[in-house]
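Recall the central idea of this unit: under ordinary conditions, the amino acid sequence of a chain determines the structure it adopts. In this exercise we apply that idea directly, starting from the sequence alone.
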Amino acid sequence: MSSNPDFDRWYAARKVRILLMPTHRLETFGNTIVNYHMLSELEDHPGKIRVREGRLEAHRPLVITPDFGQITTEGIGEQAKAYLQFLKEHADDLRILRYGYHLKSDNFSEQIVTDSLAAVTERVKRAVVASGDVSAAVLQGIDEPWDVAIVELWRREVGRSAGKNIRELNERGELF
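Accordingly, the structure predicted from this sequence is:
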């Protein structure tokens, strides 16, 4: 780690390799569990691999809409007021999804294995596939700050799932 936490954080996020994504995307109408298997080589200890396992709990995405009825204006020009009126008239088009998650530590475990990163990674991937766990992810990253990789996994899962979630919410009439 460097003496600059911002650099460490961005470096860790850029170094994440997601090797196996969950088969299922995040649920639209319920919570989703993502079981992660995070592998990292110990700095200054080649052949020592840390395997962390835990889970993310994703909460149902919430639809957020701006409340234009609560906006008052003072000291703004006619063009700004006209634009605000346009936004009020098109409020249904301004909905977004908000995702929440919780890093669970109650199912967290960690072990150090002596072998090459490639060999340990292959064993973990095979075990996850053989388990049939459709909510499992396997990723590689740096050892510290390792948990940045978990947040990056979450960010990518939200991006991967948002389209399906929007379609399903729209089909049920809960979006527009």
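Helices lie at 5-15, 78-89, 117-131, 147-171.
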